[in-house]
Amino acid sequence: MKFRHFFPSVLIGVICLTGCSDQNGGRVKVDGTVKLKGQPLQDGTVSFEPLDGQPSRATAIVSAGAYSIPRASGLVPGKYLIRISAGDGKTAVNPVDPSKPPGPGGSTNIISKELVPADWNVKSNQERTVAKDGSNRFEFDIP
To answer: Where is the region Disordered (predicted)?
Structure first.
């Protein structure tokens, strides 16, 4: 008789715990804006590289000055190095074989001028902390 009451109680407990578990592994949504010289960055990327040994990193596409990383593929709380990149959108002739266009099937080196200063990408020391609770909205204003 006691077993009959015990099993349903355990089953309800397991269902409640399963329903309350974090399906996203503690990841959070991150979003924000990117401005370059006071204007919204039209096309580019913003990358979050872990500094505290977190198991997550992410790169978001910047479009019309905005970016978003949804919670499902978001970041775990911690400190991140920020790298922002944007090319000028121009391609160059393949220096090895000018008859081939740059890109796949042609040159493996598409030459595009980087618009973002090095201290915001290859030499970045920009850090942001992603929090477990609250807004993880980061505004980047690149001079």
So the answer is: 91-113
pLDDT at 118 over 90: yes
Q: Do 70 and 63 contact (CB within 8 A), yes or no?
A: no
pLDDT at position 104 is: 56
Beta bridge partners of 142: 36
Question: How much is the pTM?
Answer: 0.71
SS3 for 118?
helix
Domain boundaries defined on the chain: 24-142
Distances (CA, A) of 106 to 14, 83, 90, 94: 57, 28, 16, 7
Q: Please tell me the distance from the alpha carbon of residue 107 to that of residue 86, in angstroms, as a whole number.
A: 20
CATH 3.40.50.2300 matches 24-142: no
DSSP-derived 3-state class of residue 37? coil
Cα separation, 141 vs 120, in Å, equals 10
pLDDT band at 17 (very low <50, low <70, confident <90, very high): very low
Residue 103 has pLDDT above 90, yes or no: no
The DSSP H or E segment spanning 15 is: helix 2-20
Helix (H, G, I), strand (E, B) or coil at 94: coil
Contact 32, 84 (CB under 8 A): no
